[in-house]
Write a structure and sequence with these properties.
With 220 residues, this protein is α/β, with parallel strands linked by helices. It contains eight helices and seven strands, in the order H-E-H-E-H-E-H-E-E-H-H-E-H-E-H. Helix 2 runs parallel beside helix 3. The longest helix has 30 residues.
Length: 220
């Protein structure tokens, strides 16, 4: 009986989260605001990728960022200094954010005059993939230093994202990283995924990332 009760509660929580997420998406569609959920391990380059995107697209798009962290506001301040509106979500130890948390972030962001919002999710390749955040698109970032075997170890996240950004490709010569092997592993898990190698430092591949964003927003 205990197992049945736990399953029922979990199912109810996920259903409640889905309803909140669907309502958020509908509201943002009406408002012509595009929310992108970005997930990755700590240190993969999420914040730097977002900052480079703000600098690359900020003249044409009004951009906001919801920063989710267990503690600190370092990333939110860095984003703000780059020219985007930002708010900080503290999860008090939780390794993910859900739609209710994101809705609180959107309200704090006062988002209705924004075109594009990034949710920088908690640095983790497992927990964030299990929750609908209300985003229109989901993006994963995998950095070259992390290795090409991550899709084999953490397949779940790669099956649920629309785009995989391979970050820090400028340092690839210094690591044992097989790009072709990685692409094959990811495409076996998710044949519809788009893979874009980038370097937020040198700018390599960022034009392809910007083009994808513009296309998905209907601004291509």
């Amino acid at each position: 009986m205990d197992g049945l009760k736990v399953f029922t509660v979990k199912k109810g929580l996920q259903e409640d989260n889905r309803l909140v997420a669907d309502a958020m998406r509908a509201d943002m569609h009406r408002n012509k605001t595009f929310l992108v959920n970005i997930m990755s391990s700590p240190g993969s380059g999420k914040t730097q990728t977002i900052i480079s995107t703000i600098k690359g697209l900020g003249a044409k798009l009004r951009i906001g960022v919801i920063e989710a962290d267990i503690a600190s506001d370092v990333d939110a301040r860095a984003v703000q200094e780059a020219g985007a509106r930002s708010v900080q979500l503290h999860t008090n130890g939780l390794c993910h954010v859900d739609a209710t948390m994101v809705k609180a972030g959107l309200d704090a962001l006062e988002y209705r005059d924004l075109d594009l919002i990034f949710l920088e999710n908690i640095g983790n390749l497992i927990c964030p993939a299990g929750y609908d955040t209300g985003a229109m698109r989901n993006v994963a970032i995998l950095s070259v230093p992390e290795g090409d075997d991550k899709p084999l170890k953490y397949p779940g996240i790669f099956t649920k994202v629309d785009v995989l950004l391979i970050s820090k490709v400028d340092v690839a010569p210094f690591f044992d990283f097989d790009m072709l092997l990685l692409e094959q592993s990811v495409l076996r898990l998710n044949p519809d995924i788009k893979i874009i190698p980038i370097s937020a430092t040198t700018g390599q591949g960022m034009d392809l990332w910007f083009a994808w964003l513009n296309s998905e927003m209907g601004r291509g």
